[in-house]
């Protein structure tokens, strides 16, 4: 980490977390590539001068990072990039979860369409079956709602 703790939001807009890593979705976390310095100036990638403590090391900071009268952000490039990679990995992991849930929803929709067709055929045969089909459709709807609720609370 740099000379001072960092509390600006990341340039990444990903809002995801997994159980093994801390939640970094809050703007009060020091995670990722910084956008602004504490002084309000935009940060940019820079390289330490030969006169600095770490000559040649890349970092994010504003143009006034050497000003000792004010606190300025200095965040090492390698640390910021690793944090961004973690955020991207979380995003791709979560997208895989979304795809799996959507596939389940598609299968349930296909089953609902089949149930509707069966309901129409059964209605022609026997009006007593109609109640059973409606209950089946309601249960299938509850299953879809339950899957989506579980998924969204898991994220």
From TrEMBL:
Residues 37-80 form the GRF-type domain. Residues 1-13 have a biased composition (Low complexity). PROSITE patterns: ZF_GRF. This is GRF-type domain-containing protein. The keyword Repeat does not apply. Keywords: Membrane, Metal-binding, Transmembrane, Transmembrane helix, Zinc, Zinc-finger. GO terms for molecular function: zinc ion binding. Residues 1-26 are annotated as: Disordered. PANTHER family: ZINC ION-BINDING PROTEIN (PTHR33248). It comes from Noccaea caerulescens (Alpine penny-cress). The chain crosses the membrane at residues 131-153. The keyword Transmembrane applies. InterPro entries: Znf_GRF (IPR010666).
């Amino acid at each position: 980490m740099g000379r001072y703790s960092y509390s600006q939001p990341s340039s990444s807009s990903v809002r995801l977390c997994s159980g093994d890593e801390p939640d970094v979705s809050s703007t009060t976390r020091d995670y990722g590539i910084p956008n602004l310095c504490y002084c309000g100036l935009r940060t940019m990638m820079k390289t330490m001068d030969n006169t600095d403590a770490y000559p040649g090391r890349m970092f994010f900071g504003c143009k006034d990072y050497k000003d000792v009268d004010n606190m300025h952000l200095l965040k090492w490039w390698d640390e910021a990039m690793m944090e961004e990679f973690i955020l991207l990995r979380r995003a791709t992991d979560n997208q895989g979860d979304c795809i799996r849930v959507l596939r389940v929803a598609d299968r349930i929709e296909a089953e609902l369409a089949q149930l509707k067709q069966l309901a129409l055929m059964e209605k022609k045969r026997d009006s007593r079956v109609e109640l059973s089909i409606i209950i089946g459709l309601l249960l299938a709807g509850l299953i879809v709602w339950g899957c989506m609720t579980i998924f969204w609370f898991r994220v």
